[in-house]
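Re: that chain you flagged

S.,

Sorry for the slow reply, it's been a week of failed gels. I finally had a moment to sit down with the sequence you sent. For the record, here it is as I used it:
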Amino acid sequence: MAGQALAKGEPRADDLDDFDSLVRLHRPRIFRFLLASLRNRETAENLTQDCFVRAYQARHQFRGASSIATWFMQIAANLVRHHESSSRLKFWRRNLQSDADVADLGRAVPDHQQSPEALALVQEQVQAIWNAAASLPARQRTVFLLRFVEDMDLLEIAEVTGMKEGTVKTHLFRALQSVRARLEGAK
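Prediction finished late last night. Pasting the structure tokens below so you have them in one place:
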């Protein structure tokens, strides 16, 4: 993060020379964010690849003002915004249903020794949250996913999205209100 010491083991700007290692390290997180954002495996795979191609092409422009992980996430968030605003894809997005499996979106069930009924209930609850998150406006959805899927703090989210911290808080608050309201309405 800008102005802060990088975490121990965090790659630095001079580590961009070993780009293959960076891709292996950060690809799962970028793919998970894109899959959660777009809920389409093929698109998430394509945009994950595009994220790293763009980063590779711009690697010499990386100033080190943020961590490499944050830089990659900024590129991914921009790709999501661009993808959603692309008018030629709107028709297809409206007509395609989500092909993301709830199990792929997080493996949210930590205790695999639960009863099948308990597992089914948890999966149903997770699906309801994903459906509610999918209906959020783009900025709210991005902030929500970065906070709860990627477990980023508010300052990191602000850095990734280019928003002020107060704006991030507002979008997160509104997203949580909307998700809660939708979940309450589904009961």
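What I noticed first: Residues 40 and 99 are 5 Å apart (CA to CA).

Talk soon,
D.
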